[in-house]
UniProtKB/TrEMBL annotation:
Pfam families the UniProt entry points to: DUF6691
Keyword tags: Membrane, Transmembrane, Transmembrane helix
Protein name: DUF6691 family protein
Organism listed in the record: Paracoccus simplex
Stretches that traverse the bilayer: 42-61, 82-110, 116-133
Domain of life of the organism encoding this protein: Bacteria
Keyword Membrane in record: yes
Length: 135
């Protein structure tokens, strides 16, 4: 059952990303182009996501346990280590160059966008290299 719930959540997320146009790298890159063809829609999508998340966390975390798990799996660390800062910077740089993030690339891949395939392959390679370096 948890796998089906995860699949359903992923499909809803992917549909939202696709409907909002965030699978289009040009639309994402235009958000970062403040001096040119600036498009605020990514900011609006992010604001909507934050609002839903804020309400969702308030409702869900009032429960003693999740519906499909014995306990909540919440982060316990609050420090900023070099891996977190470096990974965040690398994520942002890659997003600004490619116009894709994993949340937009996977739905775009599912809709047959060729640029997304290149991004997903590169992302997979980056994950593999990171795991290799950590081991």
């Amino acid at each position: 059952m948890p796998v089906l719930a995860a699949l359903l959540a992923g499909l809803i997320f992917g549909a939202g990303i696709a409907l909002s146009g965030m699978i289009n790298p040009a639309k994402v890159l235009n958000f970062f182009d403040l001096a040119g063809a600036w498009d605020p829609s990514l900011g609006l999508v992010m604001a909507g996501a934050l609002a839903v998340t804020f309400v969702g966390y308030r409702l869900v975390l009032n429960r003693r346990q999740p519906l499909l798990a014995p306990r909540f799996h919440l982060p316990t660390r609050r420090d900023l280590d070099p891996a977190l800062i470096g990974g965040s910077a690398l994520f942002g740089i890659g997003w600004g160059i490619a116009g894709f993030c994993p949340g937009g690339a996977v739905p775009a891949l599912g809709l047959g966008q060729p640029d997304a395939a290149i991004f997903v392959i590169a992302m997979g390679a980056g994950i593999a290299v990171t795991r290799w370096l950590r081991s």
